[in-house]
């Protein structure tokens, strides 16, 4: 089995920074896409940032210039560095990963980590 474990969510003041981490473990052969999504109360889950195995990245317009996604392939870990945080960034942040495991494809979500930005 493959699982994702996230960490790093916290309460922070507007203008502050946080770094989220998400590590995949289990019978993994390779990981393709790793991504961060978020879901605010009463809203749909939305894409924040993605990174592919080849290193390409993509960001939501709302976070461009403030958030940076990166990955350590040796550790099967993806990070989200969040700077200049705003109250609108308050949400549960979910990690997503897909790729190949020993017995086939996988696509998996983490359990979520709460980020709260106070004004």
Structural overview:
By secondary structure, the chain is mostly beta strands. Helix content is 0%, strand content 62%. The protein contains no helices and eleven strands. The strands form two sheets. Strands 2, 4, 5, 6, 9, 10 and 11 form a seven-stranded mixed beta sheet that branches. A four-stranded antiparallel beta sheet has the order 1-3-8-7, with no helix packed on it. A hairpin with a 6-residue loop joins strand 4 and strand 5.
- Output the radius of gyration: 14 Å
* Count of individual beta strands: 11
What summary fits the major beta sheet?
A: 7 strands, mixed
Distance between the ends: 41 Å
Please estimate the helix content: under 10%
How many DSSP H or I helices? 0
Rough shape? elongated
Structural class: mainly beta
The average pLDDT is 96
SSE ordering: EEEEEEEEEEE
Could you list the spans in which at least 5 consecutive residues all have pLDDT below 50? none
- Proportion of residues in extended strands: over 45%
How would you concisely characterize the structure shown here?
The strands form 2 sheets. Strands 2, 4, 5, 6, 9, 10 and 11 form a 7-stranded mixed beta sheet that branches. It is built from no helices and 11 strands.
Keywords:
119 residues, mainly beta, 4-stranded antiparallel β-sheet, 11 strands, elongated
């Amino acid at each position: 089995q493959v699982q994702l474990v996230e960490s790093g969510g916290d309460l922070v003041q507007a203008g502050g920074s946080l770094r989220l981490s998400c590590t995949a473990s289990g019978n993994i052969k390779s990981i393709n896409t790793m991504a961060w999504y978020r879901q605010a109360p009463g809203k749909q889950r939305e894409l924040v940032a993605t990174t592919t195995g080849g290193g390409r990245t993509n960001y939501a317009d709302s976070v461009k210039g403030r958030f940076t996604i990166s990955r350590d392939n040796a550790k099967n870990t993806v990070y989200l560095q969040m700077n200049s945080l705003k109250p609108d960034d308050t949400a549960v942040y979910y990690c997503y990963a897909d790729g190949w495991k020993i017995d086939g494809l996988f696509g998996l979500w983490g359990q979520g980590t709460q980020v709260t930005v106070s004004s």
